[in-house]
Amino acid sequence: MCNAFNKKFIDEAAHALSNQNKQNMEKSCNSNFMKQAVDAAIKGMLANEGGPFGCVIVKDGKVVGVGNNKVTSTNDPTAHAEVTAIRDACKNLGSFQLDGCTVYTSCEPCPMCLGAIYWARPDKVYYGSNQEDAANIGFDDQFIYDEIPLPYEKRSIPFEQCGRDVALEPFNMWAEKEDKTEY
Ligand SMILES: [Zn+2]
């Protein structure tokens, strides 16, 4: 009885908190922010920083992070627009999470950026062009989605487990660590 009451109270509190967080969310696509993401894509491309992709991150109606693709200019295959924007926003906000933020990206995120977005936990993503549009100009990430369900040995980059016993050591230490920052 007592536990049931507590559970209900906690559920309601969590629901209220979640709604409160979502109040800051961009409720519909703001074309001005999408335009800023597209402008970042064009500016970066014209400066030969990388591919034609841009992203802005918005919180409380303000841009808190901007990014564009910088793969070729920084020799960084992970420097996609969404990743550079997430890094910029997290630095500016002094946080490793994007609570209450909305991502505006000029193109539908690739699987890597999709993962980065889920780790950063913004409230919503608006994307401009889509996967098919990107594939039409030579940026086809469908092959990565196709690799995910394959057995490890069948992937074009084979995955094989080794040294699990040794590799579990940091996990065991983490489980015991008392001053960890969970995320
Ligand atoms: Zn990406």
Q: What do you see in this structure?
A:
With 183 residues, the protein is an alpha+beta fold. Helices cover 49% and strands 14% of the residues. It has nine helices and four strands. The chain has helices at 2-23, 31-46, 71-74, 81-93, 111-120, 131-136, 142-147, 164-167, 169-176, and strands at residues 54-59, 62-68, 101-107, 124-129. The protein has a four-stranded mixed sheet. β3 (101-107), α5 (111-120) and β4 (124-129) form a beta-alpha-beta unit. The mean pLDDT is 91. The structure holds zinc ion (ZN).
Summarize the structure.
The protein has 183 residues and is of the alpha+beta class. It is built from 9 helices and 4 strands, in the order ααββααβαβαααα. The longest helix is centred in the first third of the chain and has 22 residues, at 2-23.
Indicate the topology.
Layout: H1 2-23, H2 31-46, E1 54-59, E2 62-68, H3 71-74, H4 81-93, E3 101-107, H5 111-120, E4 124-129, H6 131-136, H7 142-147, H8 164-167, H9 169-176
Parallel strand pairs: 3-4
Antiparallel strand pairs: 1-2, 1-3
Residues 80, 82, 109-110, 112-113 line the site of zinc ion (ZN).
Give the key terms.
single chain, 183 residues, binds zinc ion, alpha+beta, 9 helices
